[in-house]
Design goal:
Elements lengths: L3 E6 L2 E7 L2 H4 L6 H13 L7 E7 L3 H9 L4 E6 L24 E4 L4 H19 L8
Parallel strand pairs: 3-4, 4-5
Antiparallel strand pairs: 1-2, 1-3
Length: 138
């Protein structure tokens, strides 16, 4: 899946990653998870305070939890995900009152059209490659 993630602090990119779930056979190898690990290594601290994470699509439950647990200051995502997104789509972990950290959130709008086009093209090509083209609408 064409999901990319960048983490920056003070205008400097400290981590970048893309989804490698299929290549690595690792269900946790989402772009956000890989980038968070890289950023923590680069900073020598698991607390990513004053860091911003930018990602193609709204983070899933696992990645949304990791953004909160790593104490990121801000998360910006391009395309909302109403089915699995957990920073405003299907639910919003950031809105849980008892969570001890909350993110600044920029939801949608940041390169949204370009990212949506990329994701749609990927799935269109995947359907063609696997011959899973949906039946015509009546």
């Amino acid at each position: 899946m064409p999901i990319g993630c960048v983490i920056e602090r003070d205008g400097e990119v400290i981590a970048l990653a893309h989804n490698t779930v299929e290549a690595s056979n690792d269900p946790t190898a989402h772009a956000e998870m890989l980038a968070i690990t890289q950023a923590a290594t680069a900073l020598g601290d698991w607390r990513l305070e004053n860091c911003t994470l930018y990602v193609t699509k709204e983070p899933c439950p696992m990645c949304s939890g990791a953004t909160l647990m790593s104490r990121l200051k801000r998360v910006c995502y391009a395309v909302p995900d109403p089915k699995m997104g957990c920073l405003g789509g299907a639910t919003n972990l950031n809105d849980l009152a008892r969570v001890n950290h909350h993110l600044d959130l920029t939801a949608g709008g940041v390169l949204e059209e370009e990212c949506r086009t990329l994701l749609q093209a990927f799935f269109r090509l995947r359907r063609i490659a696997t011959d899973e083209t949906p039946p015509p609408t009546p």
